[in-house]
Predict the structure.
Amino acid sequence: MIKAVFFDLDGTLLPMDQDEFVKYYFGMLAKKVIGAKGYDKEQFINSIWQGVANMVKNDGTMTNEERWWQAYTRIFGPQARADEPLFREFYANEFNIAKNACGCREEADKVIKLVKTKGMKAILATNPIFPRIATENRMKWAGLDRADFELFTTYEDYRYSKPNLDYYREILAKTGLDPQECAMVGNDVGEDMIAAQLGMKVFLLTDCIINKNGVDISQIPHGGFEELIEFIEKL
């Protein structure tokens, strides 16, 4: 019996071309921080990517937030931790302009409501490489909010990232759920469909599909929102 459905956000509930979004968002963040601190642009962009790499490789010994700042201060020095208020201000304000690089599907709200109507929990299993405020804002861009989900994952609270299976195990441990009681919905074959290895049911939303390794998806339940609704109806 399925008790919870995990949803990815970027490219799933929130339609986007990830490369275009990252380019747009990084450009705005660089403008904000470099304008205030005078850092070299190339070095700053490199610091962001190194921070992301640190979070993806996180071994659970510290939060993703700590991993990110570890990379940033390694480049700019320990005093650069004082830049944190600049980042918080950016994610609370200018970051919302990046909504222009995303779409919005009314079916996202319909799907979450369907899950709840069926007595299941909705969990936002978005890769926890963003701070809480940024994730809350991205939910709003998708026409949703934090009250729609049993929990959502952010870099302050989680110690692993996709595609590490320990990321999913961390959610399962916090919710007390077994993998066989859960389904995972996402658009990334490598990061989201890997949940099947734990015994979770999976559905690949193909509207903004990411399939970096060209995996044959014919054996994976997949399709657009119409097919996703049918998938959830049968859970």
Remarks:
- The chain has two domains: 4-16+102-233, 19-99.
